[in-house]
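Quick question, first post here. What does this chain look like in 3D?
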Amino acid sequence: MTKIAASILSADFADLKQDCLRLLREGVDLLHFDVMDGHFVPNISYGAPVLESLHAALPDAFYDVHLMISDPARYAPDFARAGAGLITFHLEAVLGAVPRVIETIREAGCRVGLSIRPGTPVEAVFPYLEALDLVLVMSVEPGFGGQAFMPEAVQRLAALDAERRRRNCRTLLEVDGGINAQTGPLCAQAGADWLVAGSALFRAPDPAPVIRLLHGEA
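> Answer (accepted):
Ran it through. Tokens below.
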């Protein structure tokens, strides 16, 4: 079954615990935690102390941490200690240093993901596929929630799916940006294992039907 990651960037921060708990009870599989530094992307979100507090409040949740920052090796251990289960960093932020960052995250005790912007060829990820637990394909430009889905992401997922099958590796594929009841199934059909959804879940009058559809149950 395709897993659903609720992007807390769209949550009610005045009541973050309850807003996340509401979706977990409806069947969301994990919580997606976007970290932005105002440098790699033109926005600032939140840091490890927020994750630490949320993890203390909801210790059984799996935290999928997406570092949209310029120096992931420096900050990844902080997020690992705060409760991250998997930490994803951007290839574009560390060109030439991808293996070192992968090693740093593994040494911190977390699973590792690598993300690419919409304009980065998917082939740039191929050399690292066997060393990763996950590849995150951005279907919007990273930095802001609520953007429209870029349809070319479907073909990008399909290309990555074909390559991992050719290599017979178990690296997961995740997609983030504009995922909803219409775009999510297209991505799942193209090979996505994890669907990151924000507005479509947190701002839905009733998220249950959306969750069932994204799980492939409807």
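Residues 32 and 43 are 17 Å apart (CA to CA).
The chain has a mean pLDDT of 96.
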